[in-house]
Amino acid sequence: MNIDEQKLFLERAEEDRPVLIQKVYYPKGEVVAQASPADFQGWRLDPAIETVPYDSRRWNTDGVFILDFGEHIVGHFQFSILAEGVVDAPVRLRLIFGEVPSEVCEPLEPYHGSLSRAWLQDETFNVLPPETRSISRRMAFRYVKLEIIAPSKSFHVRFADISCLATTSARWDRLIAYRGPDEFKAMDGICVRTLANCEQEVFEDGPKRDRRLWLSDVRLQAMADEVTFKNDSLVRRCLYLLAAFAPEDELMPSDAYIYPKPGTGACTVLDISLLFAPTLLDYAKRTGDWQTARELWPTAKRQIDLVGSRHVDARGLFVDPGNYWVFVDWREGLHKEAAVQGIMIYVLGSLSELAVHLGTQNEIVGLAELRKKMVAGAIQHLKDPQTGLFVSGPDRQLSWASHVWLILGGVVTVQEGRDLLLRLRERNDVILPACLYLFHYVVEAMLKCDMQQEALDLLRKYWGGMVKAGASTFWEVYDPENHHLSPYNDHHLNSYCHALSCTPSYFIRKYFSAPTAGNDRGSKE
């Protein structure tokens, strides 16, 4: 990336910096923790039965109470602490914020997570009443636990004006009205809340932890946004921010930060970097903004050029170079070569379509041939002649990831893809998806194969499982068999508002909504 191009892309991104919309939220009431093995992660929060409301209660001993704001919000928590008596010492407070009950019901220590302990949402500090304080750190939460620690006996304290100044760049007054099946209305509402809370100054992956712009998440967020808020300028801003840090001779970083200034986390994920082209194509087709597509075309093409020239062998097979992170899914032990083969073929198809719109077909003649070679390589070398299923890696592993991406890449016909997916469901030796990111593409592959009923059933079972578990927003990780599954060795670190999980709104509104005469909009705010 030359300096002039980077400057241009950052200027373009700055032009689309959104104005954050603020709204004050108040607690709905006090709740108490109850251990409950039948509930998600073994906890539930029941309404408190108190004769004295929390904002009238007075403390001069250790105390604790938990408040429920009723829904997941993102913003700055604020409160006043008042005193009655002689204030002869500060008051020590600890606040713990939770997206799900376990975060305010369980101790956060000892900590064994693989990411910074500072991502856990707790704050301990001393205040001298009377004082009004706004927590400078932005929090993502539904519940907050307030602990009064070893106060002075000379005076009583009480709390007042507890609230949260929430922010989003999503315009609730522009939300397209829901016209899908009634049974999915609650699910859609949770998707919309998830998306809105992740639409900040960029499309954040999750507002609790990372707060980063990830290309993989942006692609799915943009799909959901297309049928809800239509915040197209935020999509364009994210595309330019990501492209601004793409080197000329290596794959582009898959993530970017905006604080304290725009930059990249230098985290390059091979399969995610490839998705820049289809994300750009989707944006341009949706908006008609082919000027942006033209400016970012070289960045999109370069990702495919690099992988195609360096990491595809003479058989037309992708070979993992070993010097990049290859994600695909969180499932431990997953062999990813066949899935990336499908992703590469899929992206080559998107690049070809983009070239037609831009009139740059002459630039991709070699890539068109590469796509044919990779399709042939997948059929010849990855398709098991005995079973007709596709295998990956030295163990000839069967996985949903491999089949989903080879189907989306167009390696098989619609009927063949349908047959493959139905057969996978009958086997017990297939590696299952582990996270919502891959489950999105499972649904997408089902719809591509005219498996509408199966797609609806998956939405009911998987995202519906989170609805039944009490989700206010959809989560980064969900395993119905293991509620404590975490890629970070501590489930408290998981993000329970994660934008890549909000795409049921896209599927339901795009494929299953009743037709309308106009582009009706509604608001829940």
CATH architecture of the largest domain: Alpha/alpha barrel
- Averaged pLDDT: 95
Helix content: 25-40%
Please give the count of helices: 15
What does this structure look like?
The protein is 36% helix and 17% strand. The protein folds into two domains: 28-166, Galactose-binding domain-like (Jelly Rolls), CATH 2.60.120; 185-511, Glycosyltransferase, CATH 1.50.10. The chain is globular. Helix 11 (400-408) packs antiparallel against helix 12. The protein is an alpha+beta fold and 525 residues long.
Quick synopsis:
With 525 residues, this protein is an alpha+beta fold. Helix content is 36%, strand content 17%.
Protein topology:
Blueprint: H1 3-15, E1 21-25, E2 29-35, E3 43-47, E4 63-85, E5 91-98, H2 102-105, E6 122-127, E7 131-134, E8 139-149, E9 155-168, H3 185-198, E10 213-214, H4 215-226, H5 232-243, E11 255-256, H6 270-273, H7 276-287, H8 290-310, H9 337-358, H10 365-382, H11 400-408, H12 414-425, H13 436-448, H14 452-468, H15 504-511
Antiparallel strand pairs: 1-9, 2-3, 2-4, 4-7, 4-8, 4-9, 5-6, 5-8, 10-11
Helix pairs in contact: 1-5, 4-5, 4-7, 4-15, 5-7, 7-8, 7-9, 8-9, 9-10, 9-11, 11-12, 11-13, 13-14
